[in-house]
## 1
Amino acid sequence: MPVITCIDDLKQIYQRRVPRMFYDYAETGSWTEQTFRENTSDFDQIRLRQRVAVDMQGRSTATKMIGQDVSMPVALAPVGLTGMQHADGEIKAARAAEKFGVPFTLSTMSICSIEDVAANTTKPFWFQLYVMRDEEFVGNLIQRAKDAKCSAMVLTLDLQILGQRHKDLKNGLSAPPKLTPSTIANLMTKWSWGLEMMSTKRRFFGNIVGHAKGVKNAASLSDWTAEQFDPRLDWDKVKKLKEQWGGPLILKGILDAEDARMALDVGADAIVVSNHGGRQLDGALSSIRALSSIVDAVGDQIEVHLDSGIRSGQDVLKAMAMGAKGTYIGRAFVYGLGAMGQKGVTSALEVIHKELDTTMALCGRKHVEDLDRDILLIPKDFEGNWQ
Ligand SMILES: Cc1cc2nc3c(=O)[nH]c(=O)nc-3n(C[C@H](O)[C@H](O)[C@H](O)COP(=O)(O)O)c2cc1C
């Protein structure tokens, strides 16, 4: 077992182990990738205030997200095709999250189905919904998430149409991969991934195949998904979906204070300040830069979470100190999963936990609730001067 000291160690193993098509799928942003890059580089601009001679005993990273106990304020974000990064990937990631005491969010576009993840875990997980044109299918998905006892629904609002990622088009991304001369050449160098993938039956979108009308096989599936994301999604529809679901609701993909107020009006329990990891609107602000204006607008009335760009416990600490009440990691756990399956996701969580705990201590804080802007050094124009 290699010694893993940071998320980047996992990323390097992940890159060696997983077929190029799926590595590129994760490690890319839309168009010029400006927002994708700035999601991480903007975190780097914020510095920490070192404090000394503070009694550090009895520290804890434990807190709550939407009233649920978490061992640290870091959930696993919904990631489509997780089961292509590693065989049975969603089940493996969910199990690692469950053991670690953090929420796992299952994507609509997962390989393992809602029922399959529920049957292979012991604690409730969160379900992420993409709104599709087929209302009966969406209604059934919500019912299936209820039946599986999912403890929150994460409704994604920033993907009514798909941002363009050049590499996915060039690679002909599909699940399972189409066998062309170049994918075959690449797959031949990824034999451990291939052997594990051959030992599982979970190789298609498990929430869709057999559940959506007219989708019987991989070929019909790709046509179906391409035309299914519903461009009509609006706030009235969000209200209806909230009623249909009836449980805790998290609205994901908010990047603007006005939208945050709308989310508050529809009665959501939390919002996720997110630009989808830089995969949708290229040129949008990084999440960490957008956070303060949203916290100022609604932070005392609704729980504000953040994702996009988190690669370390220091990043988690910065987001929490700027007013977030929870964070999510996407790629950071995917690197771990692709590198080493369940162990790799655990390893990613351990790395981030250790970094968060140590950084908290060196900033002179013992509890997540004590994190505030006082421990940060933020460049003067970090959040301002946009017109
Ligand atoms: C490979 C990949 C697939 C994703 N699939 C989904 C998805 O199915 N649903 C969703 O709401 N967000 C999806 N996202 C966005 C993540 O939930 C999250 O917002 C993003 O990964 C956070 O940025 P980070 O990867 O820098 O942590 C995906 C992100 C990645 C990297």
Note: The chain has one domain: 7-365.
## 2
Amino acid sequence: MSRRALPSRRAIDNGSIPLASSLQQKSRSSPFLTIGLVLVVAFLVIGYTYTGSGYDSEKDALNRGEGISCTAEVQRAIPILKKVYGDSMQKVLHVGPETCSVVSMLLKEEETEAWGVEPYDLEDADSSCRNLVKKGIVRVADIKFPLPYRPKSFSVVIVSDSLDYLSPKYLNKTLPDLARVSADGLVIFAGYPGQQRAKVSELSKFGRPAKLRSYSWWIRYFIQTGLEENQSASKKFEQVANKRSYRPNCQVFHLNSHS
Ligand SMILES: *[C@@H]1O[C@H](CO)[C@@H](O)[C@H](O)[C@H]1NC(C)=O
Ligand SMILES: *[C@@H]1O[C@H](CO)[C@@H](O)[C@H](O)[C@H]1NC(C)=O
């Protein structure tokens, strides 16, 4: 389920058995070797704990049996996006399920205005979320239809999860519309193929099961529909992410706004 946590867990599971047995055999012959091996084991365990700690949001989601949420990933990526888009992160629109969580987080940042579009329903919204809706900061809107905003209303538009539930026919309308309302870029968070997504019981909310598309599918799709990748933003995102050892659990694409 967890794409990144699993291989490291496996590496330790495989590694710990031979290590433990060699520990027993060699403990008679060399105490130094034993200490060395104990240190190696401790190091592996600490390493695993450390790697695991970065995926709290994902683990929380998994514990709730919800699968991976790219909206949670947006929250983790906000500091990186701020580095990449700089001043352009002052007027942000987030589109995706549980947008209130992202909008609230962005509003806590200095000099940042944020709005949200919730593509599904807000049945179980808490009071702070209902407050955002009352103020008109968060709207519920079907993203299959043009968004109720003028061109270039926002500097950066970030969309998570929702595109995974749209067929190409609707993607053809929705993606250019998201690019239309942005001025300095459109950032897409999409699931990786093979990831566990929302439960079957939530399908009525999304209308259809998620279709998780591969990296090459998306790139081909962008080319077909004339959407251009923002190469410099993609490169910068990768650089900043590497520097901070941040590995997104979702695919992240940076597209140009329509000029
Ligand atoms: C989406 O748009 C592209 C490019 O305009 C077109 O080639 C493709 O057939 C469209 N797909 C659908 C399902 O309408
Ligand atoms: C490309 O990304 C940079 C941030 O790295 C941004 O400032 C610029 O406006 C983007 N270009 C377009 C055309 O969206």
Note: The first strand starts at residue 91 and ends at 95.
## 3
Amino acid sequence: MSEPFLIGEAMTGGYGAVDILHACTIAVEPGEIAVIVGPNGAGKSTAMKAVFGMLKLRGGQVRLNGEDISALTPQARVAKGMAFVPQTQNIFTSMTVEENLEMGAFLRRDDIKGTLEQVYELFPVLKTKRYQAAGELSGGQRQQVAVGRALMTQPRVLMLDEPTAGVSPIVMDELFDRIIEVARTGISILMVEQNARQALEIADKGYVLVQGANRFTDTGKALMADPEVRRSFLGG
Ligand SMILES: Nc1ncnc2c1ncn2[C@@H]1O[C@H](COP(=O)(O)OP(=O)(O)OP(=O)(O)O)[C@@H](O)[C@H]1O
Ligand SMILES: [Mg+2]
């Protein structure tokens, strides 16, 4: 087995003295979509925070392209090519759409116009609303702003915690199509999803987390076909 592009390996840790993650392992390859599913409180968001450096690990490692980045701050991980869209409060509602996207590029010293245009090509509605306060947008459009903002750093890994939370099925399909499009450019997608069936359908790899531990890991297709996964986690 060769080294995955990004791996959080045997991650153990939590908040204060309480461990939430128990030797949890999550990995993703370039151009691949990896999806984390599991019940509420399973530790999905905690696993994402751990991979992004927002949680001190008591055990395990995070490696990017073979390099141990476990000690790096989130900002240093952004500089290494990681971008994270958290589950909540992922945009600045009082700022315009374009200001939000510009904020995403805060670490860059080069010209960001080309990337801005790429984001507007991916999400055309954002261009038409570029001077509007992001807080005035619909739920689905706000998620587009959040994803677009993350893309402004030109990441190699895009981490999304429930990007389709609170949006209609049509908007969800739309957003998944855009995420597939992003993955096809070679970016790794690591995503937590509440809409487990739909997400596993587009997943190259799926992780079912339960109580902070890996319960099932397989291709999205194989997980969807597994009777036990279906019964326990996909509603039959
Ligand atoms: N900041 C925090 N401080 C203390 N405990 C926390 C904190 N954030 C989460 N937890 C606890 O950690 C456990 C895992 O939470 P986490 O948010 O990772 O779950 P999740 O799988 O993302 O759930 P959901 O599907 O509801 O988003 C829960 O028991 C939660 O109460
Ligand atoms: Mg969560």
Note: The chain is about 35% helix and 25% strand.
